[in-house]
Write a structure and sequence with these properties.
mainly alpha, three-stranded mixed sheet, 24 helices, 3% strand, disordered N terminus, metal-binding, signal
Amino acid sequence: MFAKRTRSLLCLYTATAFCSLNPMLSYAEGNELPDIGTVAGATLSIDQELQYGDAYMRIIRGTQPVINDPVMSEYVDTLGHRLVSHAQNVKTPFHFFLINDQEINAFAFFGGYVALHSGLFLYTQSESELASVMAHEISHVTQRHLARSMEDQAKQTPATIAALAGSLLLAIAAPTAGIAAITATTAGSLQGRLNYTRAYEKEADRFGMQVLAKSGFDVMAMPRFFSRLAAESRYSSKPPEMLLTHPLPQSRITDSRERAQSYPQIHPKASLRFNLARARAIARYAGLSEQAALAWFNRTEQKTAPSVESAFEYGKALVYLDNKKLQQSEKILSKLLKSDPDNDFYLDGMSDLYLALKQAPKAQAMLKKALDENPDNSVLLINYANVLLKEEKYESAIQVLHRYTHDHPDDPNGWSLLSEASSRLGNSEEDLAARAELLALKAQWNKAIQYYTQASQIAKLGSLEQARYDARIDQLIVQRERFMALQK
C-alpha cells in the first residue's frame, strides 16, 4: 500500500530542487520574475513527464482515499485553473484532486497533478489561504522542480533521470522495493538535500505569490497561513505533515511576509463557494460526529461575514441529511435553493434529499430544468444520471453516462454508474467494459484486459461492440507495456 512514509517521500521529491537563486525584484516596481529556465528538459521531456504523471495518478487512485465528490472536485478544479491562467511557463495540463486525509498537506507531481488533503479545508480560513497553498504547488509544476531535482541527483550518481523517476514510480507501487531502489540511486549528504529543499520552497513561494496576486487574491494570506502553521507546530508534539514535506524555517515566513508587503494590497470579499466547499468538507470528510459538526458550524458561523452565513446552514443541512433527519435538512435546503436556484452545492444536496425521501421524480424535474440552462455542467449531469438510475430508467441513464464518460473519462463516478445501469439492464458485456475502465484508472491492467476479453467473448460475433472491445484491449495492452517500462 501507498503508506504515509511513501507519500512523504513523494512530497520530498516534489520539494527538493531549486537550480537558481536569482532574486525577484519587487512586484510593486512592475518587474516580473526572472525566467530561470527549464534545464531539466535536456534529460526529461514534457511528454515523459506526462507519462509519469499519468502513471503516478493511476497508482494513487488505487492506493489513496481519493475523494470522488463531483461538487468538491468542480470547486478545486475551477479554483486551480483560475490560478493556472495567471501562471508562467505552463507546459502541461493541470489536474487538481482531493485526498480524504485530515492531515494538513498538499503536493504536486509530474504532469500537472496537484493533490490537496481535505484537512486543508478545516485549517484554511479564507479562499485566499487555500489559493496560496495551490499557487505554491502550481509553481512547483510550472518550474519543473521535480524533474530538476532528479537531474541534480543524477549528476551526483550514475543513475539517469529515467531511473530515478522509475524508482519513484516503483516506490508508490511497491513501497519496500521502491524505497530501496531510491536509496541506492540518491547518494549525497542529507544536509545538502535539506538546504536545497529550503531554497526550493522559497522559490515556489515567490512564483506562487505572483500567481496569487495576478489572480486577485490577498497575498498576505500566504504568510498568514505559514505563521499559523508554524504556531501549531510549536505547541504540538507531532508537527503537521505539511511541515515534514515543506520545511518552514522562520526565514521563509519572514521572506514571504516582506514580499507580500511589496504587492498592492487586495482584500477580496469572503467567498461563498469556498465556504460551501469548506462546510461540505466538515460535514462529510472531517470524521466528526453529528453533534461535533453542528457545534463547529454554530461556533464558526458567529465569527464569519454575514454574506457567507448560508454556507454554514448548508453544512448543517448535510449533517442532518447524512444522519437521516430529513425534515430538518429539507427545511434548510429548500430555503437555500429558493434564494440561489442555480447553485450546484444546493442542487446536489437537494437531489440527494429527494432520493432519501423517495421522491426521485422531483429530483429529475429539478435537475432537468437546471440542465436546460447549463447542459454541460458535470455536477448536474452526474446527479441526473444517478437519479435516472434510481428511477430504474436504465436506458436513459446509460445514454447520459455515455456522454459523461466520453467527456470525463478519468472520473470513476461515471464508470461506476454506467456499470450499475448496464448490470440492471442485463447488459453483461457493457457492465464488464465499464468495470474494466475503473480498473484501468487504478493501473490494474491485467484485470481490466481480462474483463474486456470477457466482454468481447459475450458480444455478438462480428458486431460493432465486439470490434470496440477488441480495439480497447489492444489499447490497454500498449498502456500496460508503457506503464511497466516506466519502472525499469
